[in-house]
Amino acid sequence: MTVEEMKARKRELGMTNEELAARSGVPLGTVQKVLSGATKAPRLKTLLALENVLRKGRGFESERMYSFHRLPEDPAGGTDGVAETPAPYTYKKKQGEYTLEDYYALPEDRRVELIDGVIYDMSAPSNLHQVLSGYLFRRLADYVDDHDGNCMVYIAPFAVQLDRDDRTMVEPDIAVVCDRNKLKRFGLCGEPDMIVEILSPSSRRTDITVKFRKYLDAGVREYWLVYPEEKKIVAYHDLQGDQIPTVYTFEDNVPVHIWQDTCRVDFAEIYSRIRFLYEL
Fold first, then answer.
1. Which is higher by pLDDT, 13 or 142?
2. How far apart are CA 177 and CA 243, in angstroms?
3. 81: left (phi > 0), else alpha (psi -120 to 50), else beta?
4. Residue 260: what are its φ and ψ, rounded to 5°?
5. What's the CATH number of domain 3-87, 2.40.128, 2.30.30, 1.10.760, 1.10.260?
6. What whole-number distance in Å separates Cα of residue 110 and Cα of residue 116?
7. H-helix or E-strand spanning residue 214
8. Global pTM value
9. Residues 174, 71: Cα–Cα separation, whole Å
10. Higher-confidence residue: 238 or 12?
11. Interior CA angle at 136 toward 152 and 123, to 5°?
12. Which CATH class is domain 127-279?
């Protein structure tokens, strides 16, 4: 739904902002700003949570996942005096039983991935992680632009409904999609052609084992694992073939196999720009 469609549906249901906030778990101030147009680029999870309630109508009661407190007046203006405090969230189901409905109902500030009905919490990325991700995204996107390519390059957060079912939704650090028919308003329904995951202590085990297997089974063609601390890249250039990885360092030019190695990412050049972060 667009914001205008949400407003029309809310009027049709005779629902107030307060009721919509209570049913969706989205803070009242956020609901007001989204529907008034004050927030120009609402977060995807916010829109999906609101849409979920509006589509189901008054027969749907969402669990309250927020408590509220009053804020003092903002000296600069811009606060409506209401702020959300994430209430301690206790998962109500057994791991393996969760669906996209549970995923969308989570508090907006809780970053998770859903894999085969299991919820995996995600920690905030580090400075090094974000800078590496940004440089890699730029190199891949520039290649597509320079070659008039049909592919699209996405950087997290980007929702990927990997198995096209209601039990898996992942957020790769970088995803390359060359079949635009798979793209939807919320993100991607199906497998990307290429995925890059930048490892962090909290995600390392999941990226190397659980997500590797999921990407393989889904049909992802190329998978890179970037190890920032070790300054190396483990690249599966033919994930659907022999699955034998090639190991590179931050001194190498790493070829992109989905583009017949005509694109190469110069990690030495990237490292020269981010070296100072290793000294912090």
1. 142
2. 20
3. left
4. 55, 35
5. 1.10.260
6. 19
7. helix 211-218
8. 0.69
9. 37
10. 238
11. 95
12. alpha beta
Instruction: Return residue ranges of the chain for CATH 1.10.260.
Output: 3-87
As a whole number of angstroms, the distance between CA 82 and CA 30 comes to 9
pLDDT tens string 141-197: 999 999 988 999 999 999 999 999 999 999 999 999 999 999 999 999 999 999 999
Question: At what angle are helices 28-36 and 17-24 packed, to 10 degrees?
Answer: 120
Other C-beta atoms closer than 10 Å to the C-beta of 60 total: 13
Q: How far is CA 55 from CA 27, 47, 64, 151, 245, in A?
A: 19, 12, 18, 32, 45
Least confidently predicted of 57-66, 191-200, 266-275: 57-66
Domain with CATH 3.90.1570.10 in the chain: 127-279
Residue 103 near residue 197 (C-beta atoms within 8 A) = no
The answer to whether 174 touches 156, Cβ cutoff 8 Å, is yes
Burial degree of 168 (CB within 10 A; 0-12, 13-18, 19+)? buried
**In terms of Cα–Cα distance, which of 63, 64, 84, 81 is closest to 72?**
81
Residue 183 forms beta bridges with which residues?
188
